[in-house]
Write a structure and sequence with these properties.
Elements (H helix, E strand, L loop, with lengths): L5 E7 L6 H4 L2 H8 L3 E7 L12 E2 L9 E2 L1 H14 L6 E11 L2 H8 L3 E5 L8 H7 L2 E4 L9 H12 L9 H6 L33 H19 L1 H7 L5 H21 L15
Parallel strand pairs: 1-2, 1-6, 5-6, 5-7
Antiparallel strand pairs: 3-4
This protein binds S-adenosylmethionine.
The site of S-adenosylmethionine has 19 residues, from strand 5.
């Protein structure tokens, strides 16, 4: 195992959901090159009864089933035994957790390893959450049938941040939520003409400095239009020229809003919130 490799253990009742996602493309190659070690374990394998029962009815009554604590505890113990030298962060996927984002992905990518615990049905027994889980993470404010899709999402977004996993490290720095804190700029590839549409001339100029400046402005513009909250967050990192540019967009939105939008709706949700 190389020094920068990372361990991702996944505990699930549905291991058959994972191979297609985790064995393909960049994440698959990262495992082949030993930058990443992913193991998916079936929680049912850690049951001790004849029928491998991993869930039971909730105490107090009510709908649905709850995942039993003993198989989960045994699975977590087995993971710890298999990695005696590595402190793995145990993460339960739940809509009640911290909402996943790029900042969390960057934080997790610096860890030596994580264990992703996928719930199903009504979730897992609360005593596992209070004694065996270090972090709780949500995929967003909606409810899925299980934690498997969020586990794949986390594994993918963390894995691509491990040094060496994505071929060109610059693509990680420059993409949305990268270190500039803005959304990405538009991308184009061949052919030069597609269904009557050409390309922004700048991209054909061959002048890399000007292309970088154009991309940066496109990135800022797109962020201003779609995620003004990110422009506010990145405000101090913008140059004075960029701040003036944002201000001018904001002014023209305000001026143009009455003429161009009869319903009175503005394109940007609330430009007044921009500092
Ligand atoms: C049907 S959900 C349980 C929902 C739970 N009773 C609640 O109301 O919060 C079953 C499992 O799916 C997973 N899950 C569902 N939505 C999720 C989300 N937004 N983020 C992370 N995991 C989620 C969790 O592991 C959860 O235990």
């Amino acid at each position: 195992m190389t020094r920068t490799s990372m361990i991702i253990e996944i505990l699930t009742l549905f291991p058959e959901m994972f191979p297609g996602v985790l064995e393909s493309s960049i994440i698959g190659r990262a495992q082949t090159s030993e930058l990443l070690h992913i193991r998916v374990r079936n929680i049912r394998d850690y049951t001790t009864d004849k029928h491998h029962v991993a869930d039971d009815a909730p105490y107090g009554g009510g709908p649905g089933m709850v995942m039993k604590p003993e198989p989960l505890a045994a699975a977590l113990d087995a993971v710890a035994l298999d990695h005696p030298q590595t402190a793995l962060t145990r993460v339960y996927l739940t809509p009640e957790g911290e909402v996943w984002n790029q900042t969390l992905a960057e934080e997790f990518a610096r860890l030596p390893g994580i264990v992703l615990v996928c719930g199903h049905y009504e979730g897992i027994d609360e005593r596992i959450r209070t004694t065996c889980i270090d972090r709780e993470v949500s995929a967003g404010d909606y409810v899925l049938t299980g934690g498997e899709l969020p586990a794949m999402m986390i594994a993918d977004s963390v894995a691509r941040l491990i040094p060496g996993v994505v071929g060109n490290e610059q693509s990680i720095v420059q993409e949305s939520f990268g270190h500039h804190g803005l959304l990405d700029h538009p991308h184009y590839t061949r052919p030069e003409k597609f269904r009557g549409m050409g390309l922004p001339e700048m991209l054909l100029s061959g002048h890399h400095k000007n292309i970088d400046a154009w991309r940066r402005e496109q990135s800022l513009r797109r962020t201003f239009e779609r995620r003004p909250d990110l422009v506010i967050a990145a405000w101090e990192t913008l140059s004075r020229k960029e701040q003036a540019l944002v201000q001018s967009w904001r002014d023209s939105e305000e001026e143009g809003s009455e003429d161009t939008c009869p319903t009175g709706q503005k394109k940007v949700s609330d430009p007044d919130t921009l500092t």
